[in-house]
Amino acid sequence: MTSAPDPAPPSSDPGPLPRAEFGFPGPLRDRLVAAILDGSKTTTTGLVADYAHEGEPLPRAGRREAVVDSRGLPVAVIEVTEVRVVPLADVDLAHAVDEGEGCTSVTEWRAEHERLWHGAEMRAALDDPEFTVDDTTPVVLERFRVVTVLPATGR
Question: Of 5, 22, 23, 147, which is most buried with the most CB atoms under 10 A?
Answer without folding.
Answer: 22
